Amino acid sequence: MKVKCFDENTEKELEQKINAFLSGTSSDIIDIQFQVAIAVQGEDQIYCFSAMVVYSEKE
Q1: Rounded Cα distance, 9 and 50, in Å
Q2: What sign does the dihedral 42-45-46-48 (CA atoms) show?
Q3: What is the mean pLDDT of residues 26-53?
Q4: What confidence score (pLDDT) does residue 58 get?
Q5: How does residue 14 score in pLDDT terms, banded at 50, 70 and 90?
Q6: CB atoms inside a 10 Å sphere around CB 40
Q7: 3-class DSSP string for the chain
Q8: Which of 50, 52, 58, 16 lies closest to 31 in space, CA to CA?
Q9: How far apart are CA 42 and CA 56, in angstroms?
Q10: Nearest to 50, CA basis, from 36, 38, 32
Q11: Is it the case that residue 59 has pLDDT exceeding 80?
Q12: 28-41 and 2-8 as β-strands: parallel, antiparallel, unpaired?
């Protein structure tokens, strides 16, 4: 079993990275965990979109 972690500034970038990973692998996907973190710095809101793909490589 293996994991691949992704961390992007926007949801769209995260989707693109995960879709590229999924289309380039023939592994069995076990689970995908998604999380959003928000921080406030002054008047700015900073978002962090992350995901962890748990997969098993086919033998």
Answers
A1: 9
A2: positive
A3: 95
A4: 78
A5: very high
A6: 8
A7: CEEEEEEECCHHHHHHHHHHHHHCCCCEEEEEEEEEEEEEECCEEEEEEEEEEEEECCC
A8: 52
A9: 43
A10: 36
A11: no
A12: unpaired
Range of the domain at 10: 2-56
User: Residue 51 CA to chain centroid, in angstroms?
Assistant: 3
CA atoms within 13 A on the CB side of 6: 26
Residue tagged 């692998």 (tokens): 25
Bridge-based pairing state of the strands 2-8 and 44-56: antiparallel
What CATH number is given to the structural domain containing 27?
3.30.1660
Task: Select from 25, 30, 26, 28 the least CA-distant residue to 17.
Answer: 25
Count structural domains, the chain: 1
- Residue listed under structure tokens 């973190």: 37
